[in-house]
Amino acid sequence: MARLLRHIEVLMVMLLCGATSVAQINTEQVMRIGRNALYFEDYILSIQYFNQVIRAKPFLAEPYFYRSVAKINLEDYKGAEEDASLAIDRNPFIADAYQVRGVARQNMRNFAGAIADYDEGLKINPEDKTFLMNRAVCYDELKDFEAAQESYNRLLVIDSKNDRAYLGLAHLNMSQKDSTAALSNLARSIELSRNNASAFAMRAEIEMRSQHNYEAALADMDEAIKLEPHYAGYFINRAFMKYHLDDYFGAMADYDYAVSLDPTALEARFNRGLLLAEVSENDKAIADFSYVLKSDPQNFMALYNRAMLYMNTGQFRKAIADYDAVLKKYPNFEAGYMARGEAKRRMGDKKGEKADYDQALAIFKRKNTHVSDFNPAEAEAEAVAEKARLQAETGVIEPESEDEITNRYNRLLTLATENPMKPENANKQRGRIKKINVEVETEPMLLIS
After folding, report:
1. How far apart are CA 103 and CA 78, in angstroms?
2. Residue 13 and residue 395: Cα distance in Å, rounded?
3. Short-list 26, 41, 110, 31, CA closest to 64
4. Are 283 and 251 in contact (CB under 8 A)?
5. N or C: which terminus of the chain carries fewer CB neighbours within 10 A?
C-alpha cells in the first residue's frame, strides 16, 4: 500500500510539472496570437487574448502594454492610460509604454501629464523623434511657446530634414500670430515633402485669412485635395475661396461634393443655403437651413435666413414662427419686429401688424435713432465669447479664439484648419476598426421548425 502511494505521489508531481510546462507554452502562444491580431487591426480579438495572458500571469508587463496599444487604436484613451500605467508599474524601463500613455493623455487634453511621460521616455531614448515631436505639440497647446520651440529645435538637430517639425513650427508661429514666419516654415516643410496635405491646407488658410490672396490659397487647397480627396472640410474652404473669386458655379459644386462626402457637414449646408438664396433657389435653400436647424436648433443665423426665405415664398405663417423664435432670443431687434409685422400684414392681421410696428418704433425712440443699429451676428459672437470666457475660468472646455468666433459668423462659414500635429505613436497599428468598410447583408427569414 505504501509503495502504491509513493507511485501516486510521483505521478502527481509529474502531472503538475507537465501542466506548468503546458501553461508556459500556452501563455507564449496566446501572446503571439494576440500580437498577430493586433497587427491585423482586430483590436477586440487581440484584447481578448491579452486578457487570457493577464489572468494567467498578471505580473507580466508585456500583455498590459499591448492591450493599451489595442485600446488606443479603439480610441479608449482612459483604458489605454490605465493599461500603460500597469505596464510601467511592472517594468518602468519600457519606453514605448510611456509613449502610449503620453499619447492617451494628450488625446484627453492632459498635456502636462503627457509631457511628464515624454520626459521619462526621453531619459531612456534621448534622441527619440516621436517623443520630441509630441512634447513640442503639448507645449504649444499649453501656450509655453519657448519650451515648444526648444523641443522642435532639438528635433531638427537630430533630423534636419523632418518636414513635420517645420509644419509644427508653422503652427507654433500661428499660435504667436506670426504669419510671416509660419509661411517660411511651411515653404520649408513643403520643399522637404509634397505629400502632406496639412501643410498645403495651413498655407492656404494663411493666404486666405491674413493676406486675402484667394488665388494662391486656391492653388494650395487644390494640392491638399489631391492628397486628401475625401475630407469634406477642404471642399468647404475651397468653395469659400472660389466664391471670393466670383466662381459661383465652382463654389456650389464644392459645397455639393462636401455634402456628398459628409451629409452632416452643417457648414456646407449653411453656405450652400446662402448661395442658393442668392440665385433665388428658395425651396432648396430652405431645405438646407432646415437641415442645419434640425441639428442645431439654436443657430440664429440659419433661423433668420429661413424666415426671410419663407417671406419670399409667401409662407407667412412659417416666417412668423421663425421670427417669433428670433425675437424671443433678441427682444430688442427692431428689424425683426418690422419683418414680422410685414408678415402679419400680408396675412391680414392688422392688429398684430400694428403691435409689431409700435414695438419697433418704441425701440427706435428709446435709442434715439431711425435706423436699426442692432447686428445679430455681433450679438451672437459676443455671446459665444462670453461663454468661452466662462468655460476658460472653469476649465471645462477650451475657449474659442477670436478668429474662430469671427469665422463662425462670417457671411460664409469656413473650417479653421485643425492642429495638424496630432499625437504620434510609434507603435501605432495599421488603422482603426471603426473605419473598416464592411458590406452589411440581411439574414434570410427564420422559420420555427
Report:
1. 11
2. 62
3. 31
4. no
5. C
Residue with cell 521619462: 120
How far, in Å, CA of 439 to CA of 148, rounded? Answer: 45
**Could you tell me how far CA 362 lies from the centroid of its own chain?**
46
| CA–CA separation, 283 and 262 (whole Å) | 21
Structural domains in the chain, CATH included, are 46-158 (1.25.40.10)
Distance CA 120, CA 3 (A): 61
Q: Which three cell numbers stand for residue 295?
A: 441639428
Cell numbers at 88, concatenated: 510601467
Closest C-alpha to 133, from 426, 416, 418: 426
- What ranges make up the beta strands (E) of 188-266? none
In 3D space, the residue among 69, 93, 92 whose CA is nearest the CA of residue 79 turns out to be 69
| Residue 400 grid coordinates | 474659442
Rounded Cα gap, residues 120 and 107, in angstroms:
18
What are the distances in angstroms from CA 46 to CA 78, 286, 434?
A: 18, 49, 15
The number of C-alpha atoms within 13 Å of 42 and in the hemisphere containing its C-beta is 11
Residuewise pLDDT in 10s, the chain (449 residues): 555 444 444 444 443 444 444 444 488 899 999 999 999 999 999 999 999 999 999 999 999 999 999 999 999 999 999 999 999 999 999 999 999 999 999 999 999 999 999 999 999 999 999 999 999 999 999 999 999 999 999 999 999 999 999 999 999 999 999 999 999 999 999 999 999 999 999 999 999 988 899 999 999 999 999 999 999 999 999 999 999 999 999 999 999 999 999 999 999 999 999 999 999 999 999 999 999 999 998 888 899 999 999 999 999 999 999 999 989 988 888 888 999 999 999 999 999 999 999 998 998 888 776 666 666 656 665 665 666 566 555 555 554 444 443 344 344 555 665 666 667 665 544 434 334 333 334 444 444 54
Judge whether 84 and 65 are in contact, CB under 8 Å: yes
Burial of 373 (0-12, 13-18, 19+ CB in 10 A): exposed
* Residue written as grid cell 500597469: 86
DSSP state for residue 444 in the 8-state scheme: P
Between the CA of residue 284 and those of 279, 318, 343, 442, what are the distances in Å?
11, 16, 21, 34
